[in-house]
């Protein structure tokens, strides 16, 4: 089980606004917050954080790295994907079935990090 995931950001305020709105779709709320990072808490105890890299270098996107968020329904997949795009995210794969009960949509956040939202059912 994953406890938390961190994503680098170039602009903390911009990233915070994006994830405040996006993660509200899951009922996540801001928890731990410092000048260097912000953490959102999910009801299952997991967290997603945005962070300014500790080495002082620019945040960059990991090639082949993707974070997947679990939805409670296909409708929530649709809503989260649409919200990400409305907030300025980039489409990386429209929502829809991907085979055998897997329904997903893919997008990039404002810093280029790739995320998926999916439902199994």
Compact description:
This protein has 121 residues and is α/β, with parallel strands linked by helices. Helix content is 21%, strand content 38%.
What does it look like?
21% of the residues lie in helices and 38% in strands. It is built from 2 helices and 8 strands; from the N terminus they run E-H-E-E-E-E-H-E-E-E. It has helices spanning 12-23, 74-86; strands at residues 4-8, 29-33, 37-41, 47-51, 67-70, 90-97, 102-108, 114-120. The strands form 2 sheets. A 4-stranded mixed β-sheet has the order 1-4-3-2, covered by helices on one side. A 4-stranded mixed β-sheet has the order 5-8-7-6, covered by helices on one side. It starts with a strand and ends with a strand. The model has no long low-confidence stretch (mean pLDDT 94).
Which tags fit this structure?
2,3-Dihydroxybiphenyl 1,2-Dioxygenase, domain 1, four-stranded mixed sheet, alpha/beta, 2 helices, globular, 121 residues
Major β-sheet strand ordering: 1-4-3-2
- How many separate helices? 2
Q: Class, according to the CATH hierarchy?
A: Alpha Beta
Alpha carbon gap, first and last residue: 20 Å
Mean pLDDT: 94
Architecture blueprint of SSEs:
Blueprint: E1 4-8, H1 12-23, E2 29-33, E3 37-41, E4 47-51, E5 67-70, H2 74-86, E6 90-97, E7 102-108, E8 114-120
Parallel strand pairs: 1-4, 5-8
Antiparallel strand pairs: 2-3, 3-4, 6-7, 7-8
């Amino acid at each position: 089980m994953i406890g938390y995931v961190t994503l680098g950001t170039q602009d903390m305020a911009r990233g915070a606004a994006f994830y405040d709105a996006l993660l509200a779709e899951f009922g996540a709320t801001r928890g731990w917050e410092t000048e260097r990072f912000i953490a959102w808490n999910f009801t299952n105890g997991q967290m997603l954080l945005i962070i300014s890299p500790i080495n002082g270098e620019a945040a960059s996107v990991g090639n082949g790295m993707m974070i997947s968020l679990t939805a409670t329904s296909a409708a929530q997949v649709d809503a989260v994907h649409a919200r990400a795009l409305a907030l300025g995210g980039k489409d990386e794969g429209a929502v829809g079935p991907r085979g055998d009960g897997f329904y997903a949509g893919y997008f990039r956040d404002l810093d280029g990090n790739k995320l998926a939202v999916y439902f199994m059912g």
